[in-house]
UniProtKB/TrEMBL annotation:
Pfam families: ADH_N, ADH_zinc_N. Keywords: Metal-binding, Oxidoreductase, Zinc. Residues 10-335 form the Enoyl reductase (ER) domain. InterPro entries: ADH-like_C, ADH-like_N, ADH_Zn_CS, ER, GroES-like_sf, NAD(P)-bd_dom_sf, Zn_alcohol_dh. The keyword Metal-binding applies. NCBIfam families: PRK10083.1. Its cofactor is Zn(2+). PROSITE patterns: ADH_ZINC. This is Zn-dependent oxidoreductase. Belongs to the zinc-containing alcohol dehydrogenase family.
Length: 338
């Protein structure tokens, strides 16, 4: 089988590997579609502190169950499945409080262990979620990015009367917009980005107002309009954003962050406490697959609106370069296996 392997930082190879056999409790998935994510690019460049090399990347993928390990229900053979990349122990403190995404022995498929950019991948059977016929193969490969949005919005508890502000109209920002609009019915969603084409995509994904902060400063613009966001999501993940978000937020607002930068930013207690702001962080997803699958099957989310490219898996290097460099035309890129 072919596997996309990051052999070491900066070196990607399409390797031929032996067909893997599922261990006890695992299923083997014949991968059909897999999505490229910013974190795949980070592993490629050696910017992910958790990655170990060589590594088969890819944590957003869909396929068919084609072999079963010992103890797996035989009825699962042939099932259409989308794979939750979060592998957790089930008994540590975070697992015991329903937070497997920060399990003390967390293993992320495609980061800590081999992932879905491969003709076949073996994964724990409980991580392979059945996908109903209402969701197409391509869209099923995009369930994982929507679980990121499902996770942060579960922390933020959006209300229809919130004034939401999303930083960043990349794939993460767009899934958050769709979740706020389609699931929670938030009436006012503002989106800020520095790229005009991305702001157009934000509109296509449901944003009510868009703002280009490469052209003008956001704080002044919001002030002029008399807008104080009550719910803010940083999906751009730059360390300068949190201080700005704290300054812009309405009293009693909630702020969600998802970035992984190691760079410092400066905050004061006063700026947070004087408005009694709530700041939530969100990493990966905590068992949100069933919820997102239901939302998608009900038509509350539409993956097609952020899907811009689908390329043969053999063109993975070109696809990753395009994903990284061509942010004007490129949003979610799928690799097609088989
Ligand atoms: Zn991802
Ligand atoms: Zn655990």
């Amino acid at each position: 089988m072919r596997s996309v392997v990051i052999e070491q930082p900066g070196r990607l190879a399409l390797q031929t590997r032996a067909l893997p056999q599922p261990a006890a409790g695992e299923v083997r998935v014949k991968v059909k579609f897999a999505g490229i994510c910013g974190s795949d690019v980070h592993i490629y460049h050696g910017h992910n502190p958790f990655a170990r090399y060589p590594r088969v990347i890819g944590h957003e993928f869909f396929g068919l169950v084609d072999a079963l390990g010992e103890g797996v229900d035989p009825a699962r053979l042939g099932e259409r499945v989308s794979v939750d990349p979060v592998v957790s122990c089930g008994h540590c403190y975070p697992c015991s409080v329903g937070r497997p995404n920060v399990c003390t022995s967390l293993q992320v498929i495609g980061v800590h262990r081999d992932g879905g950019f491969s003709d076949y991948a073996c994964v724990p059977a409980r991580n392979a979620y059945p996908v109903p016929a209402a969701i197409s193969d391509r869209h099923a490969a995009m369930i994982e990015p929507f679980t990121i949005a499902a996770n942060i919005t579960a922390h933020l508890q959006p209300r229809p009367d919130d004034i939401a502000l999303i930083y960043g109209a990349g794939p993460m920002g767009l899934t958050v917009i769709q979740t706020l609009k389609g699931v929670y019915g938030v009436k006012q969603v503002w989106v800020v980005d520095r790229i005009a084409e991305r702001l157009e995509m934000a509109r296509a994904n449901g944003a009510d107002e868009v703002f280009n902060n490469a052209e003008a400063a956001l704080p002044q613009a919001l002030q002029q309009r008399g807008v104080q966001p009550t719910l803010i999501v940083d999906a751009a993940c730059h360390p300068a954003i949190l201080p700005e978000a704290i300054a812009l937020a309405s009293p009693a607002a909630r702020i969600g962050i998802m970035g992984f930068s190691g760079d410092a930013c400066t905050l004061t207690q006063q700026s947070i406490t004087s408005k009694e702001l709530s700041i939530f962080s969100s990493r990966l997803n905590s068992a949100r697959f069933p919820q997102v699958i239901a939302w998608m099957a009900d038509g509350k989310l539409d993956p097609q609106r952020l899907l811009t490219h689908c390329v043969p898996a053999g063109d993975v290097e070109r696809a990753m370069q395009m994903f990284e460099r061509d942010q004007r035309t490129c949003c979610k890129v799928l690799l097609q296996f088989e």
